[in-house]
Design a protein that fits this description.
This protein is α+β, with helices and mostly antiparallel strands. It is about 35% helix and about 25% strand. Strands 8-10-7-11-9-12-13 form a seven-stranded mixed β-sheet. Helix 6 packs antiparallel against helix 10. The protein is globular. About 45% of the residues are buried.
Length: about 325
Amino acid sequence: MDEFALIERYFASAGVERPEVRLGVGDDAALVAPPADHLATIATDTIVSGVHFPPSLDPAAIGHRALAVNLSDLAAMGATPAYALIALSLPSADATWLAPFAQAFSTLAQAHGVAVIGGDTTRSDVLSVTVTAVGWLASDTVALTRSGARVRDLLAVTGSPGDAAAGLAALAQRQEGKQHRYLRQRFAFPQPRVACGRCLLPVASSAIDVSDGLLADAQKLAEASGVHLAIEAHRLPLSEELTQCHDREAAERFALTGGDDYELLFTAPRECELVLERIAQDVGCALTVIGEVRPVGDGRAPGASVTRDGRTLPLPTAGYRHFHR
């Protein structure tokens, strides 16, 4: 099977059909008529075998994750997903691998109304997948960014961070059992919080998706906003499965320093706390206040810190860095 047959068989009909796509997969480029009075929101991510996921990971999980990490970026901006392009580098055109990969990719695309409009395939010694996702925001809407946090805002997070990192550890250690299987699924099939992002658009003052670890991404948000984010460890929303597999201290460390959750970390005015509770009910996803935004000064630099019982915890804030030595 050559690259053209591969594209036609597995990706030509992936995702959904959208009326504004005038020409999709199969030509030199796609043609899309932008909706009137909208801004394009564009994100791209690459995932590489052995770097972002174990080489033995289920191909369906790889297909799901490849799109999910991009949808999570759109969610953090409050955008509505619309299109995706996929560039796939793989050692061989193995149908038993490609079929579940493409099916999972397409299933997630359909769930979020995404049309697959193009991409590329090439042979490579290392499996890697690059996806570019495009979403829309009404042009009169202020997008969520990392730079809007204000002093005295609440700091909150969706879902239950830490599950994915614990799930990756369970995969590496081949741990079985109901709780470990749940955590492994949380790593393998992260759920981008698209509906949350859209609902937070008129409420939140800033947002970022949690990919490199909650504390590391809090650091990025704080530096972009020029504020200090104070996180209280006892307020972290730890899942029952995580706390059944690990003691409280280890579970907190997974939640704070583990990556791959693809939850949303955001700030919002204090007077919006009841609104956040309603959003959580409407979208069926927990939104938990875990701290607050404080001014810099008096020994506080732009950044993030975590306290437990009044003591600051000595935790790393850098997160994963590809070229760090």
